[in-house]
## 1
Amino acid sequence: MRPAVLSTRATYPDIADRLREHFEVTDNPADTVWSPAELIERLQGKSGVMSTGSERIDAALLEACPQLKAVCNVGVGYNNVDVAACTARGVVVTNTPDVVTETTADLGFALILAAARRIVQADGFLRRGEWTKTGIYNQFAGPDVHGATLGILGMGRIGRAIARRGALGFGMRVIYHNRSRLDASQETESRAQYVDKATLLQEADHLLLILPYGPGAHHAIGMAELLQMKPTATLVNIARGGIVDDAALAAALRAGTIAAAALDVFEGEPRIHPDLLGLDNVVLTAHMGSASEPTRRAMHNLVVDNLVAALGLDPQAGQPPTPVNPEVLSRR
Ligand code: 8YV
């Protein structure tokens, strides 16, 4: 009997077929976002789940789904999963690191450029038919990106990929702050200099956030931090909603505390703080850091690889390629 798995959201048809080669699959081709109760109901009798950031996998869910053995999450971030609760119950958790790195770094850089160079503001201006005169000396004149100081908060794989783009592509001075300092070879490769958080806030012309979300990162950027930044600075969040206090950011953007921002992630997304929607110095995108066709396919294929190995059907599959709690596997 093949194990039963749940795929909580829609995926590529050929990847759904790959799942069906290995498992009895309950899927969601309509791509409905289920309530916690609906999720628990559909997880009954399932050994594995292909989950996404839209579902919370917590202790209450695990309690209600005792047959669950593998939570294979789409995304490098897994703050939707209570990993400690999974580990305590012997449930393996996997994520999709590496495959998202370069694509997400590309979006980070696109947002720095879009916000700093007022690209979306200008686009709206033209579409509204407001461009009646060329050559206004200071129109849409923002700061430079090349040669400026790029600050990065969070220096994992994606942070380092952004640092390389800034240093090598745009001749930027790169400073970073992270829970732990990189080793010397990683700093050299990233061309980035470690600073404390206050220095990062004060010296960055463009500050990019790419740290994991957890209780310690909640509102890491609030009004107190925004007030330390340059009035000409740009803030970009491609990490997780909740790292920035969106209400404080909207107030800071309105008051000119900082010049511009770009957000790919929001507190309580897909809802967006209404104060942000009324501002033209913030660029808003739809949590799409990893949204290139090849990367989304690579992520979903990696989830299938993880599920196949975690549920131990195929002797060739070995260990799941990207476990978050490998200690569960060594206990098996
Ligand atoms: C999303 C992400 O997971 O990798 C992450 O952590 O935030 C994204 O790649 C993606 O949007 C799929 O839900």
## 2
Amino acid sequence: MKTSVAIIGGGPAGLLLSQLLHRSGVDSVVLERKTKDYVLGRIRAGVLERGLVGLLEQAGCADRLHAEGHVHDGTWIAQGEEMFRVDFAASVGTPVVVYGQTEVTRDLYAAREAAGGRFEFEVEDVVIEGADGDAPSVHYSVGGERRRLDCDFVAGCDGFHGVSRRTIPEDVRREYEKVYPFGWLGVLSETPPVADELIYANSPRGFALCSMRNEALSRYYIQCPLSDSPEDWSDEAFWEELRRRLPSEVAGKLVTGPSIEKSIAPLRSFVTEPMRWGRLFLCGDAAHIVPPTGAKGLNTAASDVHYLWTGLTEYYRDGSSAGIDAYSQRALARVWKAERFSWWFSSLMHRYPEQTEFDLKMQTAELDFLRDSASAQRAMAENYVGLPY
Ligand code: RFL
Ligand code: PHB
């Protein structure tokens, strides 16, 4: 098989890139390790920046997002029994949209299928060859049969555990990592959300987040030790702990019900540099991970896709390599700012095992400053709604 861009990974980054390239007249093939149903079953991000919404519009995949997504003009921050609101609309004039990653992925698959996009599912033993030369190829097995895809470029959109990043030689690659000493236990339930907007809560018992997917579907998280597993938490124990971490006024309104998904995600900050090696480009979680506080994971994958899509379009349309040559530097410049914001917001909201009395005072002072200062709120809002591409 032959194509212009071989895309490894059929998650949101790979699908969005494939669809945008298609709209620019550039051919691609998406290779995915799992089945489509498996990919659509993963419950992940829920908050979309304006940049991602704009890309989905350009991809021709935003109709359902506009019909069913919820525009949020602000968010609540709880500090023990107190709550204050950061008003995105008043601070920076831009909202965010609450629409699940699962739905984004579903819309992208539908668009690729309608356009006759080429996929290979359940691919195994993927090997990228010749990325440092002029004629790369991707080799993989499907149902025990070895196949070969020749291409001009390879886009490594295969997430944190994929093969693309590891294809870059170790002496070229530099990795930066911070592992946090806790995880997030997340629950999805068919109950009405406790509030119209998200609530990020800093409590003496640890962090909690009240989020949602729609009027009838809620997503809640609590900080938990890394040694916990979802089976350790009955639904009752989860709801009880969540209530204890929220201001009592909010806790009193919480509608509980059976969980339809329950999982624990560890928190990590990670960046690999560079994001390009020859004709191989890393995109999204394959190149970087952020802790979910601030909802930057999916949105940062989207900004990578923007830089790579525009670079490849310039290459095929104008014969210019300027955009692809600048890709790694442009993407990383924005990635590091998202890393900083996610690290800052995580540090502000969680309880750390080694936290001293002084550290706790610093957290309180920082939260007080955010509550009282219009410029601090503006800085937070600017980052939360997404820095420009
Ligand atoms: P994905 O979504 O991981 O997709 C990568 C795809 O590549 C496939 N793959 C391979 N395909 C072919 N060959 C191989 N060798 C392959 N190896 C892997 C995988 O099956 C998968 O389909 O990465 P992408 O597209 O870069 O998208 C990034 C986002 O998914 C990610 O940043 C966010 O979901 C992160 N994240 C969250 N972000 C938020 O903003 N808010 C959240 O609440 C949130 N929750 C989460 C998350 C990530 C999680 N992970 C990675 C475990 C919760 C979890 C559990
Ligand atoms: C979610 O709804 O899953 C969500 C929202 C905001 C975050 C993280 C996760 O910061």
